[in-house]
Structures are given as C-alpha cells and as structure tokens.
Write a structure and sequence with these properties.
The complex is a heterodimer of chains A (449) and B (88). Chain A has 449 residues and is of the alpha/beta class. Helices cover 31% and strands 19% of the residues of chain A. Chain A has 15 helices and 16 strands. In chain A, strands 7-6-8-9-1-10-16-15-11-12 form a ten-stranded mixed β-sheet, with helices on both faces. Chain A has a two-stranded antiparallel sheet with strand order 2-3. In chain A, strand 11, helix 13 and strand 12 form a beta-alpha-beta unit. In chain A, helix 4 packs across helix 8 and helix 9 packs across helix 15. Chain A is globular and about 60 Å long. Chain A starts with 7 loop residues before the first strand and ends with a strand. With 88 residues, chain B is an all-alpha fold. In chain B, helix 1 packs across helix 2 and helix 1 crosses helix 4. Chain B is 52% helix and 0% strand. The chains are: A alpha/beta (449), B mainly alpha (88). Chains A and B meet through strand 5 and helix 3 of A and helix 2 of B.
Chain lengths: 449, 88
C-alpha cells in the first residue's frame, strides 16, 4: 500500500537517442519536427533477406564507443572501448551495447539529479531497468561457434552470461554506480520501459526506496530486427522519414528502432528539501492485462480498464496523451478510440513520438516518458508526424454489434492529432504503452506546481 | 617452442585484456602471478586461456584448465603439455 504522503518526483534524465549527440540535441530535433529514422546500412547488407531496411538505430561510433572483437571468433564483441573514458574498463567488460547505454544514461540522470555519492551509494537507492531482449550479437556469435563450428564452450569467453542475462542493464548500472538498494528488471515486451518506471514509482510511493534509477532500452541489434521483419509487421514502401505514420490511413507497420531512456526518481519532499529541480511529478501508475487470450491483438476492453485504473481522480485530466502509436494497422485504431472513449472528443491533444523515431521496443516506454517530461518543460506538444490522412470510414470492428466504443471514424478526431509540434499550456501528460501478451501500462505525470 | 617465446606471446595476449594495467606488463616473468601481481579478474582467466589456445595453435584439456594455476609459468606449462600431446 502507498505510504502516507509520499509523492514521486522526476529529477534526472539521460539516455541514447538515434542521430542525437545527447538529450539537448534530442529535444531540439523532436520539437523541430525532425525524423530520426534512416536507412540502416546493416539491414541494407541483407536487403534480399529483409522486407524493411529503415530504423532509428544508433551506431557505436555515435556513442563514442568502439567494439573490440575477439581474435579467435569472427565478429564476436569481446568488449568495448569508451573513447571518452566515461566508464571503467572493468564495467565495460561485463556489458553488452545496451548495458553501456544504460550506464551512460544513468550517469547523466544522476548528474542531472544532483545526488551526492553518499546518496547514490545508499541502501535507499535502487535500480530498475530492462530491455525487450529478443536477440543480440553476443549470443548469436557464441552459439554459432558452439553449435555450428563445434568449438569449446569457452570460445564465448566468460562474459556471455553477464552480458546477456535478463536484468543485465540493471546489474551493470548498479555495479557501475555502486548502489545498494533494490536491483531488478521488469520485462513486459514493448511496455518494458514504462513498466520499469512504474515499478520504480511504486517502490518510492510505497516507502521501499527513496531514490530509484529507472528506465528501459533496446540496444541496436539486427538479430532483434530480424524477428519483427519475419513477422511482416514492419513498415515498408515509404521514405525513411515517412515510414513511421501512426494513425495514417496508409500505415502498414512499425519502424523497428533502438534507444535508451533512464530517469532518476526521488521522493518528492526529499527532492524539494535539497533544492532539486523537479522535472515532473508522477501522479499515478496503473497496469493490467487484456485477459482475452490473444498474444498480439490489442483489446479495447483492456484499454478501457487501463484508463479506469489510471483516472481514479477525475481531477487529474491530461492535457496531452502520449500514445503508444506504433503505426501498425491494428494497434492505432483501437488505441485512438480508447483514448476518445476515456477523455471525450476535445480538451486534449495526442502526441505520437514513434512517428519521429520509430518503435524502440523495450526502450519505447522510457524514452517516450522522457518526451513527456520534455513536453512539460517546453510547453509544446510533440506531433503525430505523417498522420496525413485519417480513415473516413468506420473500422471493421466498430461495425460489430458488440462494439461499445466511439461510433465515429478516426477522421472525426483530426483535431486531436497535430501534424507539427505546437505550443500550449501543458500541466499533465498521460503516457501509454502496450506489449505482446496483452500487457498495458499507463502513467500520469504533471508539472510541479 | 621455447618457454620465453611462450611468455612473450602471453604478454601480447595480456595487452589485449583491458582490465590489466599495461604498466604491470613491462616486467613479466614466469613467476608473475596473474591474480596477485596483475590483479586480473578471475573471470578473465578463461578468456586468456582461450586466447592462448588460438595464439599457440593448441587445444587444452578441460581438466588441465580446471587445475590451472595463476602464475605465468603455469600457462607456459599448459601450452607445452598441449604441444607435446599434439606432436604424439
């Protein structure tokens, strides 16, 4: 149960963002309506085997990292070099690419928070971070040499487990910063990023921790990309910057992207007492499952329950809804109608950051939570790029006799979906993310008053 | 293969282990202890063994690796033992 009087403040942010040199560059590109999606050279190298070749990816060089390959196993990343010396070699030796991003993001978030070394290295400081983790180079090469080449297990070296275990990012952050509190990872597919932040919120709200470093990520990985490409769910046939088009009538899939978002959360009164800059205050977090037995298809009823759980205080109405908005034919229509069902037809706007950088999978919820904080800071709504044409006809499921949601077509809600960023007073943002398995997560975050 | 030749090869391998201070590699002898003198993390020892297999063109027995000591001379002995087995 929540401990009496405890609130949760967002006091720091960091991460890794496609084409961006850092958080400020990310901010500037987003609010000037730029797309961070490019043709991906690694995908182009396998063009004949792939449907899609666009991504919001991040290279090692862009993060000032260099991969060191093992001499005895071709393409096997033995370790990485941090060209800027931000992370000690001992920590790099236990980290895959995503874990390095997580450590860098955590470092930036903690610096922004202004936590002292004593605070960071306290039993009251936890780490909760994770990724989708559906594939990576380390396991692929290690397994290839073992199974296909018949080599000894030691060919993969002694860092296969620590660099591929489920909670590797949280573990690496904790070892890097020497935190002494909770260290765990929440995994909920594409809701992972928001799920970790939501869990961290609860740890503070319930009085278990005073500070938590939380977030989600997905390290650049062609192995992950291949899985989604094989499902035929990736966007195809558009220019890179037009490939992610949530809610547009001609959308045909999502853009598989990569990135990392890490935030520093702190008990509100403690943050206030030490004079911290409060970037946002988390009002509520709620998550649930569809419960309809369907692994993939979104559930309007599940999302209705999600909104009901989130909006226990009707006074906490959002000015902006940061949607999951993947650009898949099935997902977007259900989501838009569930938002309208919960909030009505006006009085708020919808922002779809995936339209600018694609779907970062396990990183999506956390990076998009950061975009929500940036919207509060900038007092600007991020756009739904490329949502040029909304379906003027009813969706097929709206014609079902059992349908109990809005009875207008998506085109009726044009005014909710800005094609460009714009300024308005924003006091509260709702963040939504969903994942395979029918998992749904939602958070409300407000400007500090 | 001479023992010093193997020591020199091992130094080249140790230079690629980024968790070992390169300064400590300037005066390596067969009595140098990988753990005590070079502060090599225990998890890196198997990586060093795998690199030695590659560099010297041998394959160690699993039991021999299990019983491997942490001094340079232990690795030299292991390489020579594998070489001898190879030449039988």
């Amino acid at each position: 149960m929540p401990a009496q009087g405890r609130k949760v403040a967002v006091v720091g942010m960091g991460g890794a963002f496609p084409t961006c040199s850092g958080l400020q560059d990310f901010n500037d590109k987003l609010f000037s309506n730029q797309s961070l999606i490019r043709e991906w050279d690694k995908a182009l190298a396998y063009q004949k085997q792939l449907r899609s070749v666009v991504s919001g990816y991040i290279t090692e060089d862009e993060m000032d990292l260099e991969m060191v390959t093992a001499p005895f196993a071709e393409n096997y990343p033995e370790t990485y070099i941090d060209k800027l010396g931000r992370i000690p070699d001992a920590n790099l030796s236990t980290a895959d690419l995503g874990s390095i991003w997580a450590m860098l993001g955590a470092r930036d978030a903690v610096n922004m928070a202004g936590w002292s070394e004593k605070e960071v290295q306290s039993g009251q400081t936890g780490v909760v971070a994770g990724s989708g983790g559906s594939g990576n180079l380390i396991l692929r090469v290690a397994w290839h040499h073992f199974f296909e080449e018949g080599r000894k297990s030691r060919i993969a070296g002694s860092h296969t487990v620590d660099r591929t275990m489920f909670y590797r990012e949280a573990a690496n952050i904790s070892c890097f910063l020497k935190t002494k509190g909770v260290c765990e990872a929440i995994g909920s597919a594409c809701a992972t990023g928001l799920g970790n932040i939501g869990y961290a919120y609860r740890l503070i709200k319930f009085g278990v921790q005073d500070r938590v470093i939380a977030g989600g990520l997905e390290g650049t990985s062609l192995e992950t990309f291949i899985g989604f490409d094989g499902m035929q769910v990736l966007s195809k046939g558009f220019k890179p910057e037009e490939s992610s088009r949530p809610f547009d009538m001609n959308r045909n899939g999502f853009v598989c992207s990569f990135g990392c978002g890490i935030v520093a959360l702190e008990e509100y009164e403690m943050a206030k007492a030490r004079g911290a800059k409060i970037l946002g205050v988390i009002d509520e977090y709620f998550n649930n499952s569809d419960g309809d037995g369907d692994m993939f298809y979104p559930s309007f009823e599940g999302q209705q329950r999600l909104w009901k759980g989130l909006m226990t205080d009707p006074g906490l109405r959002p000015d902006v809804v940061k949607v999951h908005g993947t650009s898949t034919p099935a997902g977007d229509a259900v989501e838009l109608l569930s938002v309208v069902d919960a909030l009505g037809e006006s009085g708020y706007h919808i922002s779809a950051p995936k339209s600018q950088f694609g779907h970062m999978l396990g990183g999506a919820g956390a990076v998009e939570f950061i975009t929500a904080i940036l919207m509060l800071e900038n007092q600007q709504v991020l756009p739904c790029l490329n949502s040029n044409t909304l379906n003027p006809e009813l969706e097929p499921f709206q014609k079902d006799a059992k349908w109990n949601g809005p009875d207008k077509s998506l085109a009726a809600y044009r005014d909710l979906l800005p094609l460009q960023s714009f300024s308005k007073e924003i006091n509260r943002v709702a963040c939504l993310n969903y994942g395979f398995g029918g998992t749904n997560s939602a958070i409300l975050v407000s400007k500090d008053n | 293969m001479e023992r010093q030749e193997i020591v020199n090869g091992l130094v080249e391998i140790l230079k690629t282990v980024r968790t070992i201070d390169p300064e400590k590699l300037k005066h390596i002898t067969e009595d140098t202890d990988l753990r005590a003198d070079l502060n090599t993390p225990s998890t890196e020892l198997i990586n060093i063994a795998a690199k030695a297999e590659h560099k010297f063109g041998v394959e160690f027995e699993d039991d021999d690796i299990d019983e491997l000591g942490s001094k340079i001379k232990d690795v030299v002995d292991l390489v020579l033992k594998a070489k001898a087995r190879q030449n039988k």
